Amino acid sequence: MKYRGPDTGAWVFDLIAHDDRVRHRALERHRQLVARSLDALHWSNRVWAQAGTPAPREPHLAAEMDRARADHRRHRDQTIFGYVDAFLETRGEAYWPFVVLYLRWEARHPEEWRSRDANLWSPWGRKEVVLGELGRRGMPDEMRPDAVDLIIDAVQRPYRCKDWKYALLVRHVAGTEFHARITALADGQDPVVQLRARFIIDLAKHPEVRITQKTWHRWLRDRQT
Fold it and tell me: 141 pLDDT band (50/70/90 cuts)?
């Protein structure tokens, strides 16, 4: 997908750069922004504790709280999380590439993606929200090839937390190319990948199925009866 987001966020795409030096430089910048954002969050928590409320009435504490929160947002908004949150909050088309980036980052570099010093909150919780939103909204045509790649990758790799939510995207990407790629996996040699691919094929045939975390297990059980 062609990047069309804000120019100030272009550097975050280096988080999945093929050049390790470029990627590590971007990761270090991201980690520094995360650390500064967390420092500001702790600052606001200290003001809260001092005032006994998240909305201080004392002018000096209210002003300090405003500065702390502004500092937190300013640094957070420069990370990949700021752009993903902008997508979740505004549904702006300009932020679609950042969603693809976020999911590709996990697909290619899961240890870096989920490391504590590279996150503000639970990476699994954010992934769940992102995939849930994609499942509800669908996606623009130009993003569908990226979504297909992400689903195919998830089917073939060892299961990661919240991967089941990729099933929500299937009804939005089902088509000739997707069918050919998922059928090739269903005819492959790995028995686990075969089963997953056949499950996905069934979901594509029945887009009306309500997908939950138990859908996969029900599907396996039904095949045995």
Answer: confident
